[in-house]
Amino acid sequence: MRQKNIMAVLLAVLCLALGILAGNMILLYRNIYRIPETAVEDLCRVLAEDGIRLEESLVPRVREDGMIYMSDGVGYTENAALLLAESGIKSTYVIPDGQLFLHYNGDMTEFSDGFGFHYRRAGLEADRRIVNEQGEMTSYDTLTAGLPELSGTGTAARAAMAFLNKQDGSLGASVRIETVIASVHGEDDGQAYVRCLRKIDGVEITENAVICLVQNGVVTEAAGKWCFMTFGESYMAQLSDITNILFMMKRTLAGSENMPDGCTVTAVERCYSLYLFAQEEGFCLIPCWRVETDTVGVLVYSALDGTLYTKTGDMS
């Protein structure tokens, strides 16, 4: 009987120890992989003191790792031009901030800084161009004014996707990359304008947006910013806590003349941005955080160290 009592006590002690161990493991997991609620509360309170309104529900709680995709930029423009025009290069011209290629089939491809590009098929009528003779690009809203909206899976959308995906075969099956049809307007069996975005691993790549003019199922012109990616190696990196990024935002906005009455953060999302190497030909995709506000535009921060990568909208 005594032995049974001892066994019962030992079993109870063992269960208690396992419970304590499990509790500690859960706490350790939460401290490593999740941002404490108190940190989020403190963040929102400190931002509010400077007139920056942020709902706690917008702040992601999970600490994440992210992939960095590396690419060699040697021969990038020539290789992309050959794939787009599907014809050899007849003449090459140096233009301000870029290169222009004329192809044997009469097509033209042009590349500029910041991954800007313009493709024009031979014989395209001047009054239908996305980019005019002065090199000015017409906005999508202006091009499509009064045109009916079409399906994102129709003939025009499929033609635009096929055109923009011409160089993605080098990425391999391990990278999930997709061209996203944002909008289609026009006549699916005649002329249509297609606006395209790009994602990698389900996350949007900032400043990658293109307008394609599709005529009778063929892309006759395309313009915008796009990276025809030939990424090779990639590696995992630990991301900075989003609370640190949002404290960086506080410093960015401090004293901004565009928020005399404060501002409201409307969205906090993961994204990717293209980063050009300064001393050598090449570029990479780095994980970033995209912070949208109601009055001071959109701010994109490197998720690696919190550096402000880019911003859009008016800021002083």
Question: Keyphrases for this structure?
Answer:
elongated; 6 helices; 8-stranded antiparallel β-sheet; 316 residues; 7-stranded mixed β-sheet; 37% strand; alpha+beta
Textual characterization of the structure:
By secondary structure, the chain is of the alpha+beta class. 26% of the residues lie in helices and 37% in strands. It has six helices and 15 strands. The protein has helices spanning 2-33, 37-49, 76-85, 140-144, 155-164, 242-253, and strands at residues 52-53, 65-72, 89-95, 98-103, 108-112, 116-120, 177-186, 191-200, 203-215, 218-225, 231-238, 263-276, 282-293, 298-302, 308-312. The strands form two sheets. An eight-stranded antiparallel sheet has the order 3-4-5-6-10-9-8-7. Strand 9 and strand 10 form a beta hairpin. Helix 2 (37-49) runs parallel beside helix 6. The N and C termini lie far apart (82 Å).
The termini sit apart by 82 Å
Please tally the β strands and state the result: 15
Q: Largest sheet at a glance? A: 8 strands, antiparallel
- Taken as a percent bin, the fraction of beta residues is 35-45%
Structural category is alpha+beta
What's the overall geometry?
elongated
Instruction: Report low-confidence residues grouped into runs of 5 or more.
Output: 24-31
Radius of gyration: 26 Å
Supply the number of helical segments.
6
Give the mean pLDDT: 82
Q: Give the topology string: H per helix, E per strand.
A: HHEEHEEEEHHEEEEEHEEEE
- Read across the widest sheet, the strand sequence of neighbours is 3-4-5-6-10-9-8-7
Helix residue percentage: 25-40%
